[in-house]
Amino acid sequence: MSHDSTAAPETAARKLSGRRRKEIVAVLLFSGGPIFESSIPLSVFGIDRQDAGVPRYRLLVCAGEEGPLRTTGGLELTAPQGLEAISRAGTVVVPAWRSITSPPPEDALDALRRAHEEGARIVGLCTGAFVLAAAGLLDGRPATTHWMYAPTLAKRYPSVHVDPRELFVDDGDVLTSAGTAAGIDLCLHIVRTDHGNEAAGALARRLVVPPRRSGGQERYLDRSLPEEIGADPLAEVVAWALEHLHEQFDVETLAARAYMSRRTFDRRFRSLTGSAPLQWLITQRVLQAQRLLETSDYSVDEVAGRCGFRSPVALRGHFRRQLGSSPAAYRAAYRARRPQGERPVDPEAGLAGATRAPAPPEAAAPPAESAVPFQTRRTAAPMPATAGSLPGQRSAP
User: Fold this and answer.
1) Is the pLDDT of residue 282 over 50?
2) Cis amide bond preceding 233, omega within 30
3) 244 — phi, psi (to 5°)?
4) How far from chain centre, in Å, is Cα 389?
5) Residue 115 DSSP symbol
6) Is the pLDDT of residue 220 over 60?
7) d(Cα 263, Cα 176) in Å, to the nearest integer?
8) Which terminus of the chain, N or C, has fewer Cβ atoms within 10 Å?
9) pTM strictly above 0.70
10) Could you report the per-residue pLDDT of 104-121, keeping only the tens digit for each?
11) Residue 161 backbone dihedrals phi, psi, to 5 degrees
């Protein structure tokens, strides 16, 4: 899934300053950034592939702070340009930031704000979204990042509408992507926006990647708790909820376990996680249903009961809204992709009242990745908020 603003929002109408050039792409590097994410825009925009039908960009590699810049494996990089080179770029890419808990250099933030004011397109890949948020460029906007960091982004910058389900979000003049390989998806999208499907397809063939990937980050979400909640009194309540998803309980039950009124519990939960507790609970039940569909032979009705849904109808409605597919279609597509001979594991280890399900029949040959029918949503459409385990970031208004 991606927010693909082919019908460009009003924010995309900003005129590019005369000294900036659309074909110039500046990549802003910092010490401590992972080399994979950093290399993605360098490869996409920095190599001449005109022989393959890919229009050429001019790449400027800029140091966001004093060098040398250290990266993965202890390597040291020396960027040929400094922050001043950003003043010529029509697109500025921040491929990563070294720490989601530390503030980026103020000089780099000023350069990004100035570039945006002068009409440049600003792009944050993976944790680069934290740099854009620190510069104030994501205020009031939809955005994404790696699902593991999404709760922290939502909590630290509450005015950002974080959606950790998306591979990338295009909000016109500010774009963000999920982790690692999703940066390739967003860079291909930029080429497609600038030069059309044919150019993006030619580039994808050179990179040996699909031109468009269906689906989003939902398949990779897990139920681990963010580190920030560990010392909070609500951590025990959240842990209890995750261990008892097979039971039918509501937010009032959680509030009572926390010895709080419903209103106080809602406020504390939202301030801690960036999520409304009801949406978080629904999301956890859907994720548990997803695991059971993948790893057991329970019927859809049985899965609904084992995930705390009051009826199979409720499961089907929430499952389709969050994953864009019916439970039965999701299971069929998942099994078709699974290698032959692979047996399911116990999906409910540690879950009270559960029994091991029998192994499913042999899987068929895997089809294309797009076998699961996910929905594509537009930036302007309101979306329910979700995340990995403490999800439910606010979506675009």
Assistant:
1) yes
2) no
3) -125, 30
4) 13
5) H
6) no
7) 33
8) C
9) no
10) 999 999 999 999 999 999
11) -90, 90
